[in-house]
Amino acid sequence: MGIIQEIRESLDPSLQYIQTDLSEYAGIVENINNLHQSIKVKTDTELKAAAQELKSRALKKESLGDLLPEVYALTKEACIRQLGLTPYQVQLQAAIALHQGKLVEMQTGEGKTLAAVFPAVLNALTGQGVHILTFNDYLAKRDAIEMGKVYGFLGLETGYIQEGLTATERKKAYACDITYATAKEVGFDYLRSYIAHDPDEIALRPFHYCIVDEADAILIDEARTPLVLAGSLVDSDLDHYSIANLVKRLSADEDFEVDDEGHNVFLTEGGIIKVENNLGVVNLHEKGQFELQSAINLALHARTLLKRDVDYIVRDGEIKLIDEFTGRIVKDRKWRNGLQTAVEAKESVTIRSEGTILNSITLQHLLHKYERPAGMTATAQQSAKEFAEFYNLSTVVIPPNKPCLRKDWPDEIFSSSEAKQKALINEIKKVHKTGQPMLIGTLSVKESEMLAKTLKQEGLDCQVLNAKNDEKEASIIAEAGRFGAITISTNMAGRGTDIKLGGADGAQKDIVEQLGGLYVIGTNKHESARIDRQLKGRAGRQGDEGESRFFISFEDELMVRYKLSEFLPKKYRKLKSDKALENPKIGNYLNDVQRVIENRFFEMRQMLYEYASFLEKQRFIFQEERQRLLTDEPFLKAQFSQGFEKLFETRKSIQKVRSVILFVYDSCWAYHLDYMMQVREGIHLQRFGGQNPLRAFRKNADEHFIEIRNNLQQDIREKLKRLQENPKLTAEDLGMKRPSATWTYIISDNTYGDQLSLMLLDNSNIGFQVDFISVFFLAIFSLFRKFKKKLSTK
Which top CATH class is 240-354? Predict the structure, then answer.
């Protein structure tokens, strides 16, 4: 390593996880291209025979690394013949890195989908299966069908998973050599396999090799989000609609107060009295009223802190949560612990039970199940440290095939949202007169619809792409680059979709290029700069012309949520001006603050990972034992036949015994999850008692795990004893009833962004009397104190 590189890494430790020197791939790429020269003259029949011969060698355990040049040369020709696409050198470099288990950064539009085909073919030759994890169902189906032409030519089967497939269809798709699916669908099927009572109910094969597309979104933004498998729950006797109506009549400030950060809401003394009088309750806080008190608090949260068309939408009589990173509806996501019910009551839609959690796993831990994971994204470098520490994935930066010509203009910064909105509309009108197509990225569904309404009032036609019409995404995006197009979008357009200059057919490409290409406008900064870069990356693909600019104000959500304006020089805090601020240091300051916020979220993910990891270790121990009882009959007999020999004499009796045992395992684990979730809700309070919350959580988890394992053995033997005494007993007689229905959803963790709780969870030495906003910004304050002093004197 050179001295300059050592200095750079000392200043930025993340650089040690980033590889930019691709010289080690040069010889391999040259070998691939040389082999391709001899392959391209062969007939289709000869190529298919060559593919079978390579598969035979792989099944005989020949090293995949040794086979790589031949397989990649053959796959290259298959891409040319089946897709009409000749892979670029940079795509071959990316394909090599992906096989090596690296995290590949390729700029938007550089052909990640095609690059993934090469390692998928190579690793599928072993017969162990390959998963390509996409960002959504649409991309899984699209890529499986399109790339399936190459796989089929080479004698490999392709499948894809979609929401709504039957168990039989899922099992068939997973049995294919290469399967495209979203990570959450794979995760849900993984959870279902651990409540199976028959081996045939298990859809998945053992995990082998996977490629994660849009890896930063899946491995970072969504990684800590628990996937949940739930079952039937006894309904509450509370009338949640009446509670919602009561809360609707309460007055702000008089009956309830929202804290300064807008994260929590509390009943005042007057509000408590009003609620008690309306409900005929003597004391709302007495022990027997806990369920009612909780329901009222949740109804208050639903009314005041969760906004329709921002946090969720109502569609077809159901509450649909909106993903904060993508603007998409997350079809299976629900809030937990009664909040989902409170929002449903608020909107007067049918209340659908959140259910009893039967099993759960984070995407982060799901990815650890693969023997050899790899990934690709357009924005990896900033998160290289996290990829390395959490997933053992080093980042390889692949240069673009053609230099990027996009012009990223400095941010336009305004003192008020009104001034920003006025300037934004003027900019859109001015650019539209030239015919240059525009993609305008908004933060929420509500904002996108308000902007569209304003533009229509100005006589400008536009297309809106948001969580309310995501099924139209492909057709809207296909035309976003045509002459004169105005497309308003939440973050949906930023992942896996291609905007072609001149429209879907490219007929107007030359005209649009002369106008400067696609012009991307961002109306807000996000907490993560990666999301901003994804939006910018919609323009300037594959050497196209393009532009980008962000319009932001001191009243934007990011500024308000973190009170960033308080850290500006005094002369800017109360400034009212219609003009953009011309001091470039303001923009640099906001970019630096964004990095500080991202670092804080990284620390939060580390902390939450510690909590989830301990439960995951317990889940693995408990449920691997359960699965062995399901699939290994000799093991089942060895564990439980002593004293119950008669129950193991016939196949039918053994199956009945197995069902009894599996039911007890599943019940105990569901009980453990429920208990630990309750512990987790209040564990941060351990800090006030001078204890380490993580240590207390682990102690609770360990003690309860030992307890349920002891109870497990006792419960199983009691049920087997009853069954042996009376073999005609049914499952219901034994107190066993599998859920009449199961469903999946994704928990929206940290619902209110309550960073106080999260900070108290960690191991740092934080005094509880310190205001959490102050603590959060101590780092920012120290970093920019010098900057403030300089700016204040000007």
Answer: alpha beta
